[in-house]
Amino acid sequence: MSFKNYLSMCLLFCCLPVVAETDTRAKQIRVVFRFDDPSATSDAGIETRLIEAFRKHGMCCTYAVIPFRSAKNVHDPASQEELPLPRDKADIFADAARAGVLEIALHGYSHQTNGMQETGHSEFAGLPYEDQLHKIQAGREFLETVLGLPVTIFVPPWNTYDASTLKALESTQFRCLSADRYGVAHLATPLAFLPCTSGIAGVQEAVLSARAAPDAEPVIVVLFHQYDFYEIGDARGVVTFEQFLETLQWLDQQSDVAVVPMSEVSDLNIDRYLANQRIAQIGPRLLPRMLRAQTQYPQVLLSEEAAHKLWDIQRPVLRLVGFYGSLMVVVGITAFIAAGMFLTKCSVLASRLLLFSGPFLLGCSLIYAFQTGQFGGRIRMLVAMVGAAAYCVGICAARMRRYISGLEPMPVK
Fold first, then answer.
1. How far apart (Å, rounded) are the C-alpha atoms in residues 131 and 226?
2. Staple partner for 223: which of 110, 167, 196, 242, CB 3.0–4.6 Å?
3. Longest C-alpha distance within the chain, in Å?
4. What is the torsional sign of CA 138, 139, 142, 145?
5. Cα gap 341→191, rounded to integer Å
6. What is the pLDDT of residue 337?
7. What keywords would UniProt list here (predicted)?
8. Which residues are CB-contacts of 64 (< 8 A; sequence separation ≥ 6)?
């Protein structure tokens, strides 16, 4: 047997385990459209045009409806008049839902911030359980009455909630929670979790990403609002309605894509959500962009199996330890060498200032991080804290070396 043939056989046997593990099922990409904020004050024209667009293509969209919209500013926690969803809108939504064009979700109670967040907004997070339960029950009862349809999906305003929200949803037998990837969850919950993964301007990009993902069952959840359309005249607009229609037409032509309602995505258990959450939290949020794994699929909700495999491929914990460990070593050694040179020439006062500047910088970084609620969330802040800690170690090591070498007397109490 020639060396070339022998090498070919070796490569073949090496590749067999990989081939055996490859998912050969036909890929089916499921896309869910979630339209937030239909209410008493929302644009009825856009809502009707959306219904007709989805009806034309035989698709379904989830409308996250606000039962009692705050009359003035939803970002103001002060008491305001509540405007219930009008009967004419409710009838339009109900007819479309019965035709399979819409699916209705409960989007909070009034979508008004409770003012309990240091940063951002939330209608529910921070409120006592009883208050959250009352809001959820009252909002759901109103919607079910005015629509004549069951409502089993909950979408928290601003995608924010807490453990008490989960408890209230579980006690009222909601089936599905749709927020984002970073919400609180626990293994015992019977709720299905379907976080948003894409905006309306990135649908085609998300589909291409799903095709590239090593997963036969990827899910894309497209979150959009009326202000995303330029026709509304809001500065946040990103697409024209015509462009949106072209997107639906494009999706309709893709043989491996199905636009489905949330209720038809049945494999959204808590294990799948937590597996995707782990990837989203550890890698992208704590590492510089240049060091993030190139196999990320941020616009796709992967299956539990695919998420676990991706975690193993990315090894984000090793990346974190490697990056921040290397940063500490480099800064610590640099501080040690620089301090060793500087301490021989400086006065006692300058020496002490140099020694205590490290803990001072570290303390300032920690205070700022905790006050802004961004501890562990900002890469620059983490780099600053790790660098300050390494600086402290390097300076202290240089000072101790001088004590041990007899170059400087130990301080006497």
1. 29
2. 196
3. 88
4. negative
5. 61
6. 78
7. Membrane, Signal, Transmembrane, Transmembrane helix
8. 34, 35, 36, 37, 38, 105, 106, 107, 153, 155, 178
Half-sphere exposure (Cβ direction) of 106: Cα atoms closer than 13 Å = 28
d(CA 84, CA 39): 8
pTM for this structure? 0.72
CA distances from 267 to 203, 263, 355 (A): 22, 10, 57
Task: Give the residue among 248, 291, 297 at the shortest CA–CA distance from 275.
Answer: 297
**How far is residue 298 from each of residues 163, 236, 283, 292, 313, measured CA to CA in Å?**
25, 22, 11, 12, 16
Q: How many CA atoms lie within 13 A of 227 on its CB side?
A: 6
- Pairing verdict, β 68-70 and 82-84: antiparallel
CA dihedral 293, 298, 302, 305 (to 10 degrees): 20
Q: What confidence score (pLDDT) does residue 297 get?
A: 80
Q: Per-residue pLDDT tens for 188-211? A: 899 999 999 999 999 999 999 999
Residue with tokens 């309306």: 200
Q: Are 395 and 339 in contact (CB under 8 A)?
A: yes
pLDDT digits (tens, 9 = 90+) for 284-332: 555 665 555 444 688 898 888 877 777 655 555 566 666 677 877 887 7
CA distances from 167 to 26, 155, 171 (A): 38, 15, 6
